[in-house]
Design a protein that fits this description.
single chain; mainly alpha; 7 helices; globular
């Protein structure tokens, strides 16, 4: 776990600015690793690739679940708003800025720029730049054609150049 914990943590940071969500995804990844008794790894690099793939999948699943909850909550809120009077006074908590919703959010410009990217190219770009995987290795990790991975990486680099310059 110690050998690949940093890589898994960085993958989780790509998806969540909130530390608690990162911790949940991180813990789920290593829980799945602990429960994967039947899984055999060719070498340590294979184990790392497996952990990164599981972390990415877990993050995406968490984001989908959160989006479903927001959609359901939004539909309920819309119905409630329609039933209220149009001149209702907002509660003091309703006026709080959204920035306070997630205290301690990650503020690094590079991480913010990576998080602003869609996925793909977010994950392929991260794997290429930070984890130093080659495009063929990333293609194998993500079950995508190699040329598509090259395109994702190029698109992600172009976006980062625009945002960070």
């Amino acid at each position: 776990m110690e050998r690949h914990a940093d890589a898994v943590w960085r993958v989780c940071l790509l998806y969540f600015p909130c530390k608690a969500d990162c911790q949940d995804a991180f813990q789920e990844t290593f829980l799945r690793y602990a429960l994967a008794d039947g899984t055999t790894f060719a070498d340590d690099e294979h184990r790392k690739a497996w952990l990164i793939r599981v972390a990415r999948t877990r993050c995406l699943d968490m984001l989908k679940a959160a989006n479903r909850r927001r959609t359901v909550a939004g539909e309920v809120a819309l119905e409630e708003a329609e039933s209220r009077q149009s001149h209702a006074t907002p509660a003091p908590g309703d006026l709080a800025p959204k920035a306070f919703d997630q205290p301690g959010s990650f503020t690094s410009e590079v991480v913010d720029a990576l998080q602003a990217l869609d996925d793909p190219p977010r994950t392929p770009l991260y794997l290429a730049l930070c984890e130093e995987y080659t495009a063929p290795e990333i293609a194998q990790l993500l079950d995508a054609p190699v040329n598509t991975v090259y395109s994702w990486i190029a698109r992600g680099k172009k976006y980062l150049r625009e945002v960070l310059s």
